[in-house]
Amino acid sequence: METPRTLSPPVRVTAVLDAPLSPWLWLVKWILAIPHWIVLFFLWAAFLVVTVIAFFAILFTERYPRALFDFCLGVLRWSWRVSYYSYGALGTDRYPPFSLGEEPGYPARLHIAYPERLSRAQVLVKWWLLAIPHYLVLAFFTGGVRAGWWSGGLVTLLAVIAGFALAFTSRYPRDLFDLVVGLNRWVLRVAAYASLMTDVYPPFRLDQGGDEPAPAEKSL
Question: With a threshold of 0.90, does the pTM exceed it?
Answer without folding.
Answer: yes
